[in-house]
């Protein structure tokens, strides 16, 4: 059993409530930094060595908190635990459509499942290890980041820098369904933006002079949809789409975005080439495509399975079974797993409704899920 006392689920929920009531949309760096300020102050007070990296490109700051140097851990590589504070929900969501509420075993609120509960548990675990003076086998590095929901454009380099040479990386993203599964593999994610330029003309009097960007877009969407290979783990999705101005005008402009999910790094490289090859010029139509693979595939391997078995034993000590799953959505764990660092994901709280109006956690699981996190941080 872990030495660190994690506290009751009731106490954890009460503190988590303050995090949820502090709205942190990715697009509002000041809001994200406000919650970052709160976490930083608590970690400094507990004795963490804290580094704050100023935000850039319209995103909030990154926070790095480390256990102080300790001769007992020697030169052992650190254990890294990384969570994000940003959510997909705009300011005002609490007041307009998703109030904080508790109904039985469920606690509701914007971002509570994805992933304020998990990031809070990571923060709380490190803070309590420091407050209680618990000796850990390895140094611990906690990352709190501001931009995961849009692909981690400013935090990826920091995550990869801190993960390089780490003993393991833990990602407290939401637990999966069924059964609160943790994650031992994720698909790679690609994102593309397509812009099509045609030729405008009167749809009645000069139809032959026009070149419809919307028709070209429709043809491209069909080609992209035909790339889906469910058996092989490759999916594409085109959304949103746009184009045209009026019914009597041949549309000179159109476009779309493409979401790509792949099972392997090789599939990602191949699919990126195939999508980019749809660009070009013909018969008055110009197609330009920007983008590429945003997150590499996160493949299960023996080191990850060993990490999972350790977490599974800790979960049994905490009184529950911890299944594992492969997940289609990406996370910051994709970056670290692709580096060859043993990475275990989905260690956050149970619940459902990520990015949906019914987002909630099963709050009574906060303490047992937190117990696994502190156990891993103490013993890895």
Automatic annotation (TrEMBL):
E.C. number: 3.4.17.11
Catalytic site positions: 86, 148 (proton acceptor)
Xref: CDD domains: M20_CPDG2 (cd03885)
Superkingdom to which the source organism belongs: Bacteria
KW Protease (keyword) present: yes
Catalytic EC class: hydrolase
Boundaries of every Peptidase M20 dimerisation domain copy: 184-282
UniProt xrefs under Gene3D superfamilies: 3.30.70.360, Zn peptidases (3.40.630.10)
InterPro entries: Bact_exopeptidase_dim_dom (IPR036264), Pept_M20_glutamate_carboxypep (IPR017150), Peptidase_M20 (IPR002933), Peptidase_M20_dimer (IPR011650), Peptidase_M20A (IPR050072)
Matching Pfam families: M20_dimer, Peptidase_M20
Keyword entries, A-Z: Carboxypeptidase, Hydrolase, Metal-binding, Protease
Molecular-function annotations in GO: carboxypeptidase activity; metal ion binding
Nucleotidyltransferase as UniProt keyword: no
UniProt name for this protein: Glutamate carboxypeptidase
